[in-house]
Amino acid sequence: MLAKDTEMLIVDWGMGDTTARDRAIARLYPELQQIASARLRREVGSSMSTHDLVNDAVEKILRIENPEIGGRSHFVALASRVMRNVLVDHARAKSTDKRHHHKVELNTRIQGEGPFDLARLNSALVRLEAIDAELMEIVEMRYFGGMTVPEVAEVTGWSEPTVKRRWQVARAWLADAMSHPLAHG
């Protein structure tokens, strides 16, 4: 019943109910903490806490006017994208700090994946988005949101076999892009 109540809160949020928005975020906060914790686990030299990442992400989500959130999975996908942006911004800020020259890594909960250099991964994702935005979104949901194939299927409206195939394509493309980064300069 709690899941159904959360879904209704999210629908009400989408219709402008700020009380429903606050209650939905409160209900989903433990899940956001799990996602953030997974993102931050074993990062090299990270000064960002799970609490900081979740709060920064929620703050950015609250600034979105009329977010189109179709349910819990859509919210998790949105939170995943926002957490990615927060982590990338944090990594960029660290890289400009002359006293620290640590690369920031992303450790996924996906077996056989990661850790990845976050700056290199973000660069590859920007390139992938230019080629196929839907593939980039799958990577974002899987890596940054820790979403399962069925959850990605729910958000995208695709069948699970389609998500699996597209996920394989995205992983293969990313592996190549990560091993052949673009030269800057």
From TrEMBL:
Among the GO biological process terms of this entry, one is: DNA-templated transcription initiation
Q: Which residues form the RNA polymerase sigma-70 ECF-like HTH domain?
A: 8-179
Enumerate the InterPro entries for this protein.
HTH_Sigma70_ECF-like (IPR053812), RNA_pol_sigma-70-like (IPR039425), RNA_pol_sigma-70_dom (IPR014284), RNA_pol_sigma70_ECF-like (IPR011517), RNA_pol_sigma_r2 (IPR013325), RNA_pol_sigma_r3/r4-like (IPR013324), WH-like_DNA-bd_sf (IPR036388)
GO molecular function terms listed in the Swiss-Prot or TrEMBL record: sigma factor activity
Keywords recorded for this protein, A-Z: Sigma factor, Transcription, Transcription regulation
Which residues does UniProt assign to the signal peptide? none
Family, similarity comment? Belongs to the sigma-70 factor family. ECF subfamily.
PANTHER family cross-referenced by the UniProt entry: RNA POLYMERASE ECF-TYPE SIGMA FACTO (PTHR43133), SIMILAR TO RNA POLYMERASE SIGMA-E FACTOR (PTHR43133:SF39)
Q: What protein name applies here? A: RNA polymerase sigma-70 ECF-like HTH domain-containing protein
Q: Could you tell me which species this protein originates from?
A: Erythrobacter litoralis (strain HTCC2594)
